[in-house]
Amino acid sequence: MKRLGIAALAGVAFVLASAATAFAQSNIPPDVGGDVVQPPGAAPGSTAFTGANVTVWMVLVAVLVVLGIGFLLAARRRARTAQG
Questions:
Q1: Which domain holds residue 68?
Q2: pTM of the entire predicted model
Q3: Number of H helices and number of E strands within the chain?
């Protein structure tokens, strides 16, 4: 049950970190005071560029996860050698 909770928490954290790009510079609800003008070069149906850069944060999260797993494995190994 503990592993399921950890996996669920990791999944939620991943979704929130990934969704940060989608919500960057968003105006909910949008403030439209007149005609909607598309910027030059924006093709209809293309993926929106928000300008957010979360690559550094995703790398940092990955490094921290790997570091945490390493510490967990080291602690288990120390506990096993201390018992026997």
A1: 51-84
A2: 0.39
A3: 2, 0
